[in-house]
Amino acid sequence: MSVRAEEVLLEDVVDEAGAEAAAVLDTAAAPPRDWLIPAIIGSALMMQTLNATSINNALPAMAQALHVEPLQLNLAITTYLLATAVFLPISGWMADRFGAKKIFMLSMVLFALSSAACGLAHSLMQLVMARLIQGVAGAAMVPVGRLVLLRTTPKNALVSAMSVLMIPAMIGPFIGPILGGAIVTFVGWRWIFFLNLPIAVAAVALVRAYVPDVKEQDPGAIDWRGMILIGVGLAGLIFGFENLGRNVLPPAGVAGLFGAGVAGLGLYALHARATPNAVVDLSILRIPSFQASVVGGFFFRLVPGSMPFLLAMLLQVGFGMSAFAAGTITFISAAGGLTMKTVAPRLLRRFGFRTVLIVNGVISLLSFIACAWFRPDTPHWLIMVALGLGGFFRSLQFTTLNALSYADLSQGQMSRGTTTAAIFQQVVQSVGIGLAASLLRFLMNSRGEAHMTVATVTPVFAIIGGLALISQFWFVTLPRDVGDEMSNRLR
């Protein structure tokens, strides 16, 4: 399976100072501090995105080396997602308690060391355990890095700040497919994980030297009961989707996982209503802009959550391409996204958040659905054009959704708002992967096929793209002036 766009994300943020810089993102003309801190934190996040996108092309080789089927590697990926989702709630509390900068640097070191452990794994179980630790580190690295920037950036500079941060962060998706394909083809898949070691050393040194200490806040007592309830709820849902359609557990077992997940989250909702310091603040979901970003964004993120995996299956398994050949095609998607980061502030200032979310969202989903028409004889240049355009528009949607999360939050709500948004984003990665795998398994069974084919994979693009259109319901109900303060929109 693919280590989705944790995309990331992530999956997934940053700084600038001055209205004009926010409008044009002219880093050459802006004072160094306006882009330095976001660029440093973005470079640290590059470690995670490079790891994720490089692994996508390594999955068939990893499966062969570990003597498992490619779909069985879903366990290692889902374990990472589960660890990240379960430990995300505590990341905000730890940042408030011990200092965001300290936790950020510690998480980078732990992520790099656990990556090395992944590269040394000689069995699926060893890989799963290393990915578990890596997920714990990732749970802090992304949201805490984002929190550092939120607390050092004025709201009207946030859009351009996020664009600056995402430029280095997207270098990972840009070079990951080609680099990962080249490493797998010419060196060996283990070196994909070892790459994180020098990146972590450089990132920690830069953060220590240039990123200011964010003032520690009093987070209150940690909500252990809430942690347990939300952990059980997320674990049930994530492993429920992991086993959906895989015939590993009986239907009653899968239903039990979903039941435990729903019960855990339901009990947590009751608990949070009566607990002032609940680990995840559900009350902020009543803010329309935050709800649209998180809940509407949940449906939209089904697309990037499943796309890396589906493309790897289509190009390598369906079309029979090597990992390197597939990487030379799929990297163009990240190239399109990287190009977008330079124009996002201008588009948001010109058209506003609501219009961009509606129009760009439809274009993004149509570009994803278009992958359903790819065939082995489709010219590679045409596939690259479609993926490049899709990457551009999806990246614009990500930037808009991420910035919208904080449009109407106060400074006191930033920490828990970041945690809540990150949990939703992490869960949707599991849902996207689980949904894609389940649809593939269902189509294989319905066609009586023992192995995946082009005809098995391509319909899944259309199905998931159609489901993601549900996101439009939240976008069309937003007020026309939502987010105008952040984008310095001209009227």
Helix content: over 70%
Poorly predicted runs are: 1-32
* Topology order in helix (H) and strand (E) letters: HHHHHHHHHHHHHHHHHHHHH
Mean pLDDT: 78
Derived structural class: mainly alpha
Main CATH class of the largest domain? Mainly Alpha
Count all strands and give the number: 0
* The CATH architecture of the largest domain: Up-down Bundle
Total of DSSP H or I helical runs spanning 4+ residues: 21
How many domains make up the 3D coordinates?
Answer: 2
- The CATH superfamily of the largest domain is MFS general substrate transporter like domains
Q: What value does the Rg take, in angstroms?
A: 21 Å
Strand content: under 5%
Give the distance, in angstroms, between the N- and C-terminal Cα atoms.
47 Å
What general form does the structure show? globular
Would you give an account of this structure?
Helix 3 packs antiparallel against helix 10, helix 10 (224-243) packs parallel to helix 18 (414-446) and helix 14 crosses helix 17. The chain has helices at residues 19-24, 32-65, 74-98, 100-119, 124-150, 158-169, 171-186, 190-194, 196-210, 224-243, 251-273, 288-300, 302-318, 323-340, 344-351, 353-369, 380-404, 414-446, 454-468, 472-476, 484-487. The protein is mainly alpha-helical and 491 residues long. The protein has two domains: 19-213 and 279-487, MFS general substrate transporter like domains (Growth Hormone, Chain: A); 223-278. It has 21 helices and no strands. The protein starts with 18 loop residues before the first helix and ends with a helix.
